[in-house]
Amino acid sequence: MELISFLIDFILHVDDHLQAFVQAYGVWVYALLFLIVFVETGVVVMPFLPGDSLLFVVGALAGAGLMSYPVAVAVLLAAAILGDQCNYTIGRWVGPRVFQWENSRFFNKQAFERAHAFYEKYGGITIVLARFMPFLRTFVPFVAGVAEMSRVKFTLYNIVGALIWVLGICTAGYFLGSLPWVKQNLDFIIWAMILVPGLIVIAGAWRARQRAMAP
Questions:
Q1: pLDDT at 70
Q2: Which residue, 28, 64, 110, 119, is most buried by CB atoms nearer than 10 A?
Q3: Above pLDDT 70, what percent of the chain?
Q4: Where does it live in the cell (predicted)?
Q5: Can you tell me the distance from the alpha carbon of 34 to that of 14, in angstroms, rounded to the nearest whole number?
Q6: How far is it, in rounded angstroms, from Cα 114 to Cα 124?
């Protein structure tokens, strides 16, 4: 329970925790950033770690001179790209072993073929957009691996998505994080960056379910 409470507090007050870590451990903060982003994007069972809010806070701290913007961005880019590659590889490795019996309880050949066709056709934009969606950015690379999306195509869009995600949000934090209104309302901004994308995902899933159930 203590670990869960700490994780919740870290997610909701990532700015305070990260600043305290920088003051206490200095350059080791870059190792922490790499670990958080790599685990969130690369390990299927850890989708709840902070992503968007972490990038924004890192940009804000860099803008305040507490961190190096180029080093932070390089570390975060490496973590995001390698994390997705790891997740994809896990999916490619797990898929054939879990789904080895056709039309078994765990595998439906028709569903697999549909997923494969979807990722070959729309996988690129899905991978890029999922970067900005909590939970989805953890599961999309794994499903892409299970669906056997080609590695070359996945890698290309993985890099493009990581560049847009990391550079976009870190740069926003760098330039906006010092504004008085942002400082005063940073807690609300973090909540919004967690809840709004999550609500969009839930609404999209509900609409997809409604369409599937429609006669």
A1: 96
A2: 119
A3: 64
A4: Cell membrane
A5: 15
A6: 16
Which residue in this structure is represented by tokens 């609300």? 188
Length of the chain equals: 215
Q: Predicted confidence band at 8 (pLDDT cuts at 50, 70, 90)?
A: low
Tracing tokens 């909701």 back to the chain, one arrives at: 12
Q: Quick check: helix, strand or coil at residue 164? A: helix
User: Considering only CA atoms, which of 3, 2, 13, 1 is closest in space to residue 50?
Assistant: 13
pLDDT band for 52, please (50, 70, 90 cuts).
confident
Residue tagged 């991978």 (tokens) = 127
* Cα distance between residue 157 and residue 119, in whole Å: 12
Quick count: other Cβ atoms within 10 Å of Cβ 123?
22
| DSSP type of residue 116 | H
Nearest to residue 50, comparing CAs of 36, 31, 29, 69? 36
17: which 2 tokens? 């925790």
Per residue in 174-183, pLDDT (tens digit) is 998 777 777 6
Q: Which amino acid is at 14?
A: V
d(CA 62, CA 122): 35
Ordered alpha helix ranges (H), the chain: 2-12, 14-25, 28-42, 52-63, 69-98, 109-130, 136-146, 151-176, 180-184, 186-213
